[in-house]
Amino acid sequence: MSFRTIYKKLTDVNIYHHYFLDDGTIAFDFNGKPTLKESQLEKYELAEYMNAVVSEKTAELFVGQKIIFKPTSQGFALFIKALETAPDSGVYEPFIELTGTETFTFLIYITDRLFENYSTVGGNPENPYYFSNVKPATEPVSFNDIDLETNLTPTPIEDFEIEEADTLEALRETITSEELVGLFGIIQLSLHADDVAKDILNLDDTIKSQPTVYKIQLKNRSTIWNYINPVDGTLIHTTEDDDLANRLQPLVKNGKVDYSFDNTDYPAAQPNRIKIERDGGGVIIKTISEIYIN
After folding, report:
1. Biggest CA pair distance of the chain
2. Among 19, 26, 165, 202, who pairs with 220 as Cys (CB 3.0-4.6 Å)?
3. 155 CB contacts (<8 Å, ≥6 apart)?
4. pLDDT tens, position by position, 222-242
5. Could you tell me if 40 and 21 are in contact, meaning their C-beta atoms sit under 8 angstroms apart?
6. What is the average pLDDT value for the chain, to the nearest integer?
7. Pairing between strand 183-190 and 129-132?
8. Which helix (H) or strand (E) holds 139?
9. Which candidate, 38, 22, 16, 33, places its Cα nearest to that of 252?
10. Banded pLDDT at 191 (limits 50, 70, 90)
11. 274 pLDDT exceeds 60?
């Protein structure tokens, strides 16, 4: 009797952005439309705005451990060379033994120059966002660990900011100075997490039959819409004068955002023409989309 060695999936990491996925004003993950998410993901490509890669140190580890990093249309997946623990058992363990204490590091970079225009955060933060399934000892108890795919109320990306300088300093030691340039976010996944549901391996270090799926979710920006006469640049209409429910309108790539005034439907705003007003500390206080109409 022989033991089988094959490649098994370790985990998936999905990165979603409402700007690309929402159907107009309907959120792609809205429970009232259970098939919407699947249909929207068919036309979703993370590479349109973001690049997720393995850190240099983790790439070296992957070579030795026979782990494969595979980009997907919505993030990336990890596969590992595995050995069946007993003939026809269906239970697999890593072909090359892991200690169980390994941490994998992945880096996120924004590739779309318009990213800040349609996102609630900028593409080049002062400190990279940090997503992990283990709380660093230097972070407070309020630390937010990475969400699972099954989380129906995903954590806002703004809540993944690093709070302690010691945490950031420790993270910088794990990546090169070149990798720090333009870095948007760091994903660090340990084989065993603070929450057992977020473990990559089973407690006995065998490979899960149903891999853990993590997710990161980014919100689309909502803006004031100014309709402008292209001939003389005068303001025809602004949603800033509307009631609170309609003052800010969402920016989306797919679907239709209906907006009308004077009993006429008008086109939705696009992210390529936008004005951002900041206070003295650089905090955004108003975002205006300009739409030129005849």
Report:
1. 83
2. 19
3. 144, 147, 217
4. 999 999 999 999 999 999 999
5. yes
6. 94
7. parallel
8. none
9. 22
10. very high
11. yes
Q: Work out the number of other CB atoms within 10 angstroms of the CB of residue 234.
A: 8
Q: Is the pLDDT of residue 1 over 80?
A: no
Q: Which residues have a Cβ under 8 Å from the Cβ of 78 and sit 6 or more positions away?
A: 9, 10, 11, 12, 67, 68, 69, 70, 104
Question: E-assigned strands of the chain?
Answer: 5-17, 50-54, 67-72, 75-84, 92-94, 103-110, 129-132, 147-148, 183-190, 212-218, 222-228, 235-238, 249-250, 259-261, 264-266, 274-278, 284-292
Spatial distance between the Cα atoms of 66 and 120, rounded to a whole number of angstroms: 38
Separation CA 239–CA 269 (nearest Å) = 11
Q: Which residue has the tokens 């990890």?
A: 78
Going by C-beta distance under 8 Å and a sequence separation of 6 or more, which residues neighbour residue 243?
Answer: none
AA letter at 232? D
Radius of gyration in angstroms for the set of CA atoms belonging to the chain, rounded to a whole number: 22
Neighbours of 262 (CB within 10 A): 7
| Global pTM value | 0.94
Burial of 203 (0-12, 13-18, 19+ CB in 10 A): exposed
The first and second tokens of residue 158, run together, are 């703004």
Provide the CB-side half-sphere exposure for 274 (13 A, CA). Answer: 24
Measured CA to CA in angstroms, residue 172 lies from 58, 162, 169, 269 at distances of: 14, 12, 5, 39
